[in-house]
Amino acid sequence: MKMDVRKVMDEGWRMLASVILMGVAMLVFTVPNHIVPGGVSGLSTAVAELVPLKVGTVNFILSVIIEGMGCLNFGVKFVMRSLIISTGLSIFLNIFEGMIPAYTSDPLVAAIAGGAMFGVSCGILLGRGISSGGTDTITLIIKKYFPHVSVGKTLMLTDALVVLVSTIIFKNIDVAIYSAFTIFCSGQVVDKIVVGMDVAKLIYVITDSPEKIQNHLVEKMDLGVTVLTGKGGFSQTEKGVLMLAVRRPMFSAVLRAVKQLDVNSFVIVQDASEVWGEGFKEHNQGQ
């Protein structure tokens, strides 16, 4: 029971810190400079220009629509934490909009600073396997109906579409340029927080349900999995061992999926500074 309380408290402070950092980044750096950090928060910034609503309200409406679709496809548990984060962010934005001074002196500085804060915000969540939802949810829905679509490419395409739509709405090409800086900086910071200097995570899953988890990872998430066999040293029972390497965007989704499929699974995560092969570096790179 103590572990459950500790886990709830850990997730609670992470979500609160993430909401505050993301909210400050939007109100101080991105929204005043028409910079779009991708995802729902970026789309909310642009849509708020077209409707007589605050950014926080638009963010809440879009989040409810997206997480509602996620709920229909994956269940309530899948979207619960994402919806809590989205709601918290929307409330923060509506309360503090106009109260926190905006930085508009240099859009490039705003893009870099905003991206760094977004990166820290997302990294805090991903470090505990928590997803903020939004484009992650959209990507997984697309993956469900189009299994052969690459998750990584879908995530990039979604952010690119958000930036494109925002550029059209603001009628300014600078939006695309500075937004690209923000998204790049955010990704770099997340990498440093979640995987340090590493390009991927090496995950071992020791489970009594290897086929169920393997099928989900391969068929639903388009990930490569190596299947091993093992025996519990204490119980002396046969165990299935799944080994896979994943990039940052899929790290939290994999942990969440494993947990949902086998709550008693034993998961080991290691840093992988080099991964060669399909989906990562080609073997002729660097030669």
Automatic annotation (TrEMBL):
Keywords: Cell membrane, Membrane, Transmembrane, Transmembrane helix. It is a multi-pass membrane protein. GO terms for cellular component: plasma membrane. The keyword Acyltransferase does not apply. It is found in: Cell membrane. Pfam families: DUF2179, YitT_membrane. InterPro entries: DUF2179 (IPR019264), N-reg_PII/ATP_PRibTrfase_C (IPR015867), UPF0750_membrane (IPR051461), YitT (IPR003740). The chain crosses the membrane at residues 12-31, 43-66, 78-96, 108-130, 151-170. This is YitT family protein.
